[in-house]
Specification:
about 160 residues, mainly beta, Pnp Oxidase, Chain A, seven-stranded antiparallel sheet, three-stranded antiparallel sheet, about 15% helix, about 45% strand
């Protein structure tokens, strides 16, 4: 029996997700970013989160070897940033409003929330790596609607 990977991916796209940008600092000390929709909470005690990274990503080595990373939760105003950092080779944060963090990798200045994480573990997960982070610091802003990804497109939540 053959497994239709394209149909599987389309079925997974039926689950709406939030969108985040993960930042890390390269060995040459340049911050870089990548867009993900695989961010989720893992534990409150200790505070832990995870996200997944394709092993074919040109940023794989930097993120899997980094001592830490920062996760910025995107709002609807970030669609262009998200699209830019989702592409291979488009990992520069130049021109994006950033704020410094104690850990090093910057956060997006106008993110809905951000989490500074120490790298806890990297696990194998098929064609992806699962990166587990221990949250060291975080902040959130009450204003703004989240950027959502559903069936291959960006969207937003309807207001109540």
């Amino acid at each position: 029996m053959s497994f239709d990977k394209r149909a599987f991916r389309q079925a997974l796209g039926s689950f709406p997700t939030g969108v985040a940008v993960i930042t890390a600092v390269s060995p040459s000390r340049h911050p870089m970013g990548i867009t993900v929709n695989s961010f989720t909470s893992v534990s409150l005690d200790p505070p832990m989160v995870l996200w997944c990274l394709d092993k074919k990503s040109d940023r794989y080595q930097v993120f899997t070897k980094a001592k830490g990373f920062t996760i910025s939760v995107l709002g609807t105003a970030h669609e262009d940033v998200s699209a830019r950092l989702a592409k291979q080779g488009s990992h520069s944060l130049e021109g994006i409003a950033l704020i410094e963090t104690e850990l090093g990798p910057p956060a997006l200045a106008d993110a809905l929330a951000f989490f500074e994480c120490g790298s806890e573990a990297v696990h194998e997960g098929g064609d992806h790596a699962i990166l587990l982070g221990r949250v060291l610091r975080f902040a959130r802003h009450d204003a703004g609607a989240p950027l959502v990804f559903f069936r291959g497109r960006y969207g937003a939540l309807a207001e109540a």
